[in-house]
Amino acid sequence: VSFFGDDSDIFQELNKKADAYAASLDMEYEWIPQLPFSKDSVIQELKKSDAGIIDIEPYDEDIFSKIEDRAKILVRFGVGFDKVDLETASKHGIAIARTTGANTTAVAEMALTLMLACKRLIIKGQKCVMTGNWVKDVGHEIINGTVGIIGFGVIGRRLAKLLSGFDCRIVVYDPYPNLNLIQELGVELLPLDELLQISDAISIHVPLLKETTNMIGRNELKLMKESAVLVNTSRGGIVDENALYEALSNGVIAGAGFDVFAIEPLPLDSPLLKLENVILTPHVSSQTVESLWNIYKMAIDIVYDFYHK
Ligand code: NAD
C-alpha cells in the first residue's frame, strides 16, 4: 500500500505503472493518496497490508502499536527519516527503509538550479519584466568561484559531479567523511567555519538531526561573504529562518534559495516572503517524473527483497 502523492494525473499515471510493476513481482499494490494526512486511514490500511510506502508525515508509537501484527516493513518515499520514530518502530518489530539514491539527481539538479538562479537574480529579473520595469541587474558567475557543500552524502556528491563542469573550487564539510570519495571527486574537506568564510555559494545536504538543527544560525551566516548565496534543499530546521531573514535583509549575505522550511507549508506571515533576494519553492526538489518513478520502483523492490531474501 502506498501513501504518497495527490490525485493529479501524474500520480495516477505513476501509480498505474507501480501497480503493473508490483504485479510483475506477484505483489498486490494499492495507492491511497494522503492529502491531507489521516492517521486513522493509515492505520486501517496498514492493518490489512504486509508493507507500506510512506510519506513525510509523522510515523510514531500510535501507528506502530496498531499495525505490528501485520505490516512488517515501511519504506519512506524519499530519504529523510526525521519524522519517523525509528527506535519505537524497532521495538514493535517493524523495519524501516528508505529509497536512498532514487532522488539524488533530482535534488542535486534542484540545488544547482537554485544556486545559479540566485547568482543570476532570475526571479527578480522575471518580476521586472512582468511589471514593465526593464532593470538590468548584475549577477555573479559560479565559474572560477568557490562552492561549499555541507553534508557530502549521495546528494552532496552528485552536486559536486554536476559542478565539475564549472571549473570551480569545491569545498566540503562533513564530520563523517568518506576520504576515498573526497579524493576521487577532487574536492577539499574543510572545517565548517572555513567553508563558510571562503564560499561564493553554499548548498546544504545534511539530514535533520539534533546536531544539525539550526546548525546555520546568526553566527554562521555572519561568517559568509556578503556576495554569497545559501541554498537549502535538505530539511527545514537546519537553518535558523529568523537569522536568515535578518542576514538577507541586512546585506549580510546576497541571496538564498530554499526548498524546505521549519514549518511546511511556509506560513504566509513568514518574513521571508517580504524579501526580493530569496527564491522559495514548496519542497519539490525530488518532484521530477524520473525521480518519482525511481522511488516507486526502488520502494517496491525493497519490499520484495524484504520478504524474499
Ligand atoms: P546521505 O545520508 O547520503 O548524506 C547525508 C550526509 O550528511 C552524510 O555524508 C553525513 O555524514 C552528513 N552529515 C551528518 N551529520 C552532519 C553534520 N552535523 N554536518 C555535516 N554533515 C553531516 O543523504 P542524502 O541522500 O545525501 O540526503 C541528504 C538530505 O537531503 C536528507 O537527509 C534529506 O533530509 C534531504 N532530502 C530532501 C529532499 C527534498 O525533496 N527537498 C529530497 C531528498 C533528500
Structure write-up:
- The strands form 2 sheets. Strands 6-5-4-7-8-9-10 form a 7-stranded parallel sheet, with helices on both faces. Strands 1-2-3 form a 3-stranded parallel sheet.
- It has 12 helices and 10 strands.
- The mean pLDDT is 96.
- The chain has helices at residues 9-24, 39-46, 61-67, 86-91, 104-119, 122-130, 154-163, 179-184, 192-198, 218-223, 241-249, 289-308, and strands at residues 51-54, 73-76, 95-98, 146-150, 169-173, 188-189, 201-204, 229-232, 255-258, 278-280.
- The longest helix is centred in the C-terminal third of the chain and has 20 residues, at 289-308.
- The two termini are 20 Å apart.
- Helix 1 packs parallel to helix 12, helix 2 runs parallel beside helix 3 (61-67) and helix 5 (104-119) packs across helix 7.
- Helix 10 (218-223) links the parallel strand 7 (201-204) and strand 8 (229-232).
- 39% of the residues lie in helices and 13% in strands.
- The chain is globular.
- The protein is α/β, with parallel strands linked by helices.
- Nicotinamide-adenine-dinucleotide is lined by residues 78-80, 100, 103, 107, 150-156, 173-176, 205-208, 211-212, 233-235, 259-260, 283, 285-286.
